[in-house]
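JOB MANIFEST
job_type = single_chain_structure
chain_count = 1
residues = 146
[input]
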Amino acid sequence: MHIKELGHIVLYVTNLTRLADFYRDTLGFTQIACDRQTALFSSGRTHHELLLIEIGGPPKVKRGVEPGLYHIGFKIGDGTESVKQAYKELLEKGVTIVGSADHSVTHSLYILDPDGNELELYADVSDEWKTNPAAILKPTQYLSLE
């Protein structure tokens, strides 16, 4: 067996309407289907890349570093300007921003969705990783988005 690509992500959410609004209206995902308990999103690359399933309850509370999902990364463009523009838009929309980073081959912005899931919004800034896979392991640097 050989994995070809990451196909989709499924998140249990506390409030389907609130989370679907966030992923559609704030992050710009295309919602392709929705019923009372689920919402599907796709960029057109495949049948769906994100599925939200409502389970109710309060948002999770982070208790520090624990085993499990750390964050989900979404490519938003190429070049630092894509990340700077996203930063401005998210500030205007009141989204919780938890950090930014220069990963050498990508520039990243880290945010929280309404349930507290951490999301990385990144832009490719170098294709060095294609010839030097270790390039993704270079030390992370501070990225100013102002």
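[summary]
The mean pLDDT is 92.
The radius of gyration is 16 Å.
exit_status = 0
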